């Protein structure tokens, strides 16, 4: 088994099973959680004056890149035909968030990172409420599981 070589093997196997069996709403929540987590990690690496220790710059960039990858995954998963105005609004938000994160990657502007993190946290809460509703608990996504790694 591939998971045995890692000290987190059991956790990774558990998480993979969770992703494969999650409802569509819960998968969206998991993506938001991954983005929020990575933005929190990135923000923690920046001092209030916008400085990052040289040995932490790569981690900072990786965390922001993962958050942007997740936002891109959320963008491409939108059904613009069925989603109507809500899907259009979410698309606009995701594009805006990606721009803010890209700018923060260069400027080390901690306030932009925390702003996007806070907005994604609010969206996550809304999706959690929706995914916990009775109508959504039996919906499954057909096909292969997402290939995006949301862990930090």
Structure description:
The protein has 152 residues and is mainly alpha-helical. Helix content is 69%, strand content 0%. The chain has helices at 9-21, 24-44, 57-77, 80-107, 110-131. Helix 3 runs antiparallel to helix 4 (80-107) and helix 4 runs antiparallel to helix 5. The protein is elongated and about 45 Å long. The model is unreliable at 139-145 (pLDDT under 50).
Tally of helical segments = 5
Distance between the termini: 22 Å
> What structural class results from the helix and strand content?
mainly alpha
Q: Give average pLDDT, whole number.
A: 82
Q: Helical content, roughly?
A: 55-70%
- Gross morphology is elongated
How would you briefly describe this protein structure?
The protein is mostly helical.
Q: How are the SSEs ordered, and which strands pair?
A:
Layout: H1 9-21, H2 24-44, H3 57-77, H4 80-107, H5 110-131
Give descriptors for this structure.
152 residues, 5 helices, elongated
């Amino acid at each position: 088994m591939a998971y045995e070589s890692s000290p987190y093997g059991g956790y990774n196997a558990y998480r993979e099973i969770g992703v494969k069996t999650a409802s569509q709403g819960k998968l969206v929540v998991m993506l938001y959680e991954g983005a929020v987590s990575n933005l929190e990690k990135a923000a923690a690496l920046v001092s209030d004056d916008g400085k990052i220790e040289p040995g932490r710059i790569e981690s900072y960039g990786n965390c922001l890149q993962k958050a942007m990858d997740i936002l891109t995954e959320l963008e491409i998963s939108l059904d613009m035909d069925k989603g109507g105005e809500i899907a259009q609004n979410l698309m606009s938000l995701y594009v805006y968030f990606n721009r803010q994160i890209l700018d923060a990657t260069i400027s080390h502007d901690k306030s932009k990172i925390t702003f996007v993190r806070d907005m994604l946290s609010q969206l996550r809460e809304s999706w959690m409420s929706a995914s916990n509703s009775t109508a959504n608990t039996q919906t499954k996504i057909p096909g292969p599981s997402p290939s995006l790694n949301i862990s930090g």
